[in-house]
Amino acid sequence: MRVLGDRKDFDPVFSGLNKNSALFKDAQGVIDKLKNDVIVGERIKYRQIPKYYKKRHGIDNAYHVYLPDGMRLVYSITNYQGEKTAFLMELADHKSYDRRFNY
Question: Between β-strands 2-5 and 83-92, what pairing exists: parallel, antiparallel or unpaired?
Answer without folding.
Answer: parallel
